[in-house]
Specification:
single chain, 148 residues, mainly alpha, elongated
């Protein structure tokens, strides 16, 4: 199924819906982590350190993808606001960023399922929520029109 939008506003609305669903899903992750019995194969000595390293690498990946993928796509969309391929490129770059930010709460859930404490998982839940809040899909700027 190909992604198709008639306007950039339609793409923005779909992104905001996705953003809201991802943000809201962090609560059920925490709830599931508290109720689930866990998995023995997720229990290992340096689990917190391993997931913390993965989280740091994930944040670095998000920063790199924002600079290399999202900013050029946004600039292309500002230059050509009605171009369907520019809209799709921008939309895809935003989905990549949002999905990457969602990994942090999943790391927290994996920690809880591995038997770690809630206080060890909370930074991952909150870190993911903060990243998602920072990545809220904003209104796409319109190019400045010359008055000549």
């Amino acid at each position: 199924m190909a992604i198709s939008f008639r306007t950039k506003e339609e793409a923005l609305q779909k992104l905001r819906t996705l953003w809201a669903m991802l943000l809201i899903s962090i609560g059920p992750y925490g709830y599931a982590g508290e109720l689930s019995p866990g998995f023995h194969w997720l229990r290992f000595a340096y689990a917190f350190e391993a997931f913390a390293a993965l989280a740091i690498l994930n944040i670095l990946y998000i920063a790199l993808m924002y600079r290399k993928l999202s900013l050029p796509a946004l600039q292309g969309l500002v230059r050509q606001p009605d171009d369907p391929s520019a809209i799709r490129r921008w939309y895809a770059s935003q989905v990549v960023l949002l999905a990457s930010a969602e990994c942090l709460p999943l790391f927290g859930l994996a920690l809880r399922l591995g038997g770690n404490t809630l206080s060890q998982a909370l930074p991952f839940y909150f870190g993911g929520a903060i990243l998602l809040l920072l990545l809220f899909p904003r209104q796409i700027p319109t190019p400045a029109r010359s008055s000549t």
